[in-house]
Structures are given as structure tokens and as C-alpha cells.
């Protein structure tokens, strides 16, 4: 009868769940840890079949979980690692708690007093808590515990965030506010006189109109690189076939006329350029210029 009552079924279900959960936890540990560090518990025939998760964790902590002096020193340095917004201040508090817990485990306990001093130094380095730190330092020692530290500077950070938000909102409000014009502003299309109110959109329109007028005026002028074509640049040219490289080097050259007997003549000094003349072109880099020999003519 016992095997059929509800109590037995409940106990059997609990037993099955326990062993199933234990097997799953064991497998998760074995998947996460290299076999090198657990094989001391591994049976040649049964593997880890008779090993519990607790056995493996105990083995790992006892054999490989020893905290060294180097670890403790690194933990002290971690206690003073920088913190700055917008990182949540709770992360600063969590780092302090973690370092304290590690120091306790390693037998080199970080006192609350030292932890608080490190936390205050970290906040001071941000330059954002000068006034709160002054108020904090006025407190009596019994009111400067780690718990007090967290409460005090959590509130200080909330106030700082609120003030930052309000300040930013005020800036945007001022930027979008209307502006009173105290002088007469004249453009080609509009004149604004005192005390007319100008909003941002109006100012933008005025500036854009002025820019368009300036660009239109510039478009009607010629650049200094446009040389006047004072007379026809059509010349009788002859081939350079038969001339040696030395002879060509001794001659002048320009984009319009090609090679000529005036060695001082070049694309930049040419007095009679034809349309499309490029003053940057040289005999070595013709840029589409003439490859002919110019028929000498007085005045060129």
C-alpha cells in the first residue's frame, strides 16, 4: 500500500529531480572547466559518475583557488580604478564591495575606512563632486561609514544628474528663444529695423539670402587664371619628328603652341593662349596640350 500512497510518489519525484539536477550541474561544471584541472577526481572506469558537483568545486577551490600576494595587490589597485558618468554610480559601489569581499577571502581585509577613502578619491578625480565632498568631510567619523558613503553620494549623484538635465534644458530654451534686433540689418531683399523681433528661422533666411547674393556676384567675375585671348592663337605648326631629346629640352613649350625656339616660353607665360589653355601643363606633363613644333614668329 505504501508504494501507492501520495507521500511515496512525492518523495520519489523529489529524488528523481535531485539527481537529475545534480547531473546537469555537474555537466555544466565539466563543460566550463578544462579536464586538466578535474581529472584527479575522474575514475578510469566510471569517469565522473560517482563525483558530485560539490566534490569538484571543493577540489578546484582547494587546489587552484589560493589567493596570492600578487592577487591581493591587484585587488587593492582595482579598488581605486577610475569611475566617471554616465556610468551608474552603483557600479562604483559594487566594485568596492567586490574588492572588500576578495580581501576578506585572501586574509588581507580592506577596512570600511580605507574603502570609503578610496571611493571619495575616485569621486574627487571626476571633478564633479567638489561641493558634496566638502560636505562629506564635515561629518563625524561615525557618520562616514561605508553605508553612509553609499547613501550620501547616491543622493549627490541624483542631484547632479537633475541639475545637469535642467541646465541642458535651459540652454536649448535660450537657443530657441526669439532675439531682439537692436540695429538695422540690410540685405539685397530685406531690411530689419529696431525694435523688430527676429526668430531663428528669420535669421537663417537672411543669412541664406546674403550667401546667394554673394555667390551670384562672384559668378559674374573671371578668375585670374583666365587669360584674355588677345588675338588668334592659330599658328602654323610643324612636326617634331627628327628632333633629338636634347634639342627638345632646349626649346620652350606651352599647352597652346607646343615646342618653340624661345626657351623662356611656357604654359604660364604664354601671351596668346587659345581656348582650353592649361597654365599648369609642361613638356613632361602635357595635359592634352600640343605636341607640335611652333613656327617661330615675332612677338612670341
Short account of what is shown:
With 300 residues, the protein is mostly helical. 49% of the residues lie in helices and 6% in strands. The protein has 4 domains: 11-64, no CATH class; 84-172; 185-219, no CATH class; 237-300, no CATH class.
Description:
With 300 residues, this protein is mainly alpha-helical. It has helices at residues 6-32, 53-64, 69-79, 89-105, 112-126, 130-137, 146-176, 200-219, 245-249, and strands spanning 179-180, 185-186, 191-192, 197-198, 237-238, 252-254, 258-260, 293-294. The strands form 4 sheets. A two-stranded antiparallel ribbon has the order 1-4. β6 and β7 (258-260) form a beta hairpin. α3 (69-79) packs antiparallel against α4 (89-105). Residues 214-234 are annotated as: Disordered.
Write the layout of secondary structure elements.
Elements: H1 6-32, H2 53-64, H3 69-79, H4 89-105, H5 112-126, H6 130-137, H7 146-176, E1 179-180, E2 185-186, E3 191-192, E4 197-198, H8 200-219, E5 237-238, H9 245-249, E6 252-254, E7 258-260, E8 293-294
Antiparallel strand pairs: 1-4, 2-3, 5-8, 6-7
Helix pairs in contact: 3-4
Descriptors for this entry?
single chain; mainly alpha; two-stranded antiparallel ribbon; 8 strands; elongated
